[in-house]
Amino acid sequence: TWSQFWSDYFEDSEGVVLSVFVLAYPPVLRQLTSLTRCDDLDGQRRVLVAPEVLCTGSDYTNVAIAAWILLTLWGLGLPAICYLLTWRKRRNLHAFTTRVRIGVISSEYEAGYFYWDSVTLLVRLTITLVVSLSSASQELRLVLLLIVGITAYVMTRVYMPFENSSGEILDTLHSSALKIFCAATSVLLLGLSKVTHTVFCAAISFIVIACHVLFVLYLIRLFFGYVRRSIAEGVVEAHMRGVARHGCCRRCCLKLSESIFLRETKAQQRAAQTSYDVSTNSIVISPGLSGKIRDHEQFLVAYGIAGCVSHSIEFCKVERLSMHFVEFLARRAFAESADKLQCTDRVWRKLRPTASSDSKSDPQRLAWQDNRDSQAPTKALFETSSFKLGMSAIDFQGVLDSLSQSPKDHLEKSFHDFMIAKGSGDKDYELLPHERMLLKFIGIKHVIKAGLFLKDVSEGRVDSRLDSEPVRPDMADCLDSDAVSHDGGSNPQREPATFLTDQAGMTNADEAMDIERIKDQTLSRPEQSVVETHPVDGADT
Question: Is 532 left (phi over 0), alpha (psi -120 to 50) or beta?
Fold first, then answer.
């Protein structure tokens, strides 16, 4: 139908339209604000873009009203639209379809700061409005710009909203850009205020310009570094797929790509290498060809693990966090990267100048890489071949960062399978996560009923009913075998129950404290109290 056609068309073109709007946001703001800017020309205030129009006439008033209406709609409307789009997809920001449609405004931020692109647009709006204040002096506008820059810098350093797949490089670059902006604004303000000598202001201006140039060169260096890395990964993929290059031009491009791959691989080998020692269950950071381990490389490893733990506690709301979780993260990182590392090593052995002609020296592809086996990812966590090769610290942190974006169900299921395969002695891991939560909820309600029954037994209010009515099965399990003692006759003597055990339906040893707490609260209630049960913290309702 036509409605379905147009619906699919708008969904498919959403990413392109949104990219155009975001890119056009600053120039449209400048064009709209230019219609309201006036300056003294020939002793009269005239519009800068149209000097023939006086700022005191009715024509200017009509144009200014229209410009401010459009400025309000465009300046506040686009940030609001971006916020609504990201808020609607906030739980699936890392899905492929979401990244294709709204990735231009959400892909570079962490999940908790999906709205930060709207904040960035509002900062641009504020800067544009401050610059367009023609009625204010230049010193006042510079002061306002300095306040905006310092505020944006403080917000960036406090919240750190950017994604950290490569450490904190995006947060660092954004903070550096804001610092240079504030420095340039301060130098201009210092020069216009005429507080210092002109030569001193010129020297400071030269230093700020040099910082600008160095920062731009650093960005260019980072850009070409990521391009080189992308080309190297393309070479590995081409060799593993066996893609043939026909023609002189294509073969030349392949040779150039292979030389870039060799340079990138050597650069990776010079960095510190992170590996996993199966015998000691520890993450080992060893120096690369450079012979030293830098502080930021150790920080990347620690930051990757901390990010996964923070994601599990804050966003996944896990019921409990086992100490085996760190081991699971380390094994999972190397198991997921093992096939890629093996492929890279094979291509490196093949293309390096001292490559051996013996094919047996080349490592084989991993045998556990079988999509038909649902347990293949779990088996890979315990295969020794998964941990033969190490990776750089930044690659290790990048893999853990991708794991920290996993949804709760997937993360819990993977850790559950890991604990079962590891042979954990905790019977609680024999249950699936949702089954464990359901059992906890039902068990707590069962214990409350059992506690009321034991209270009646201890106070002797149910003695007359025990001989005439059978004990309910759910209450009989809660009676201790020593709670009823016989003195050799037919009349039993009731003894107070002393404890509750996991026979009341609780299988998790971590919940023993909850049972004792519920028992104490139940036995201390008055007889006429009304029992109203609520699920404990962490239980599914």
Answer: beta
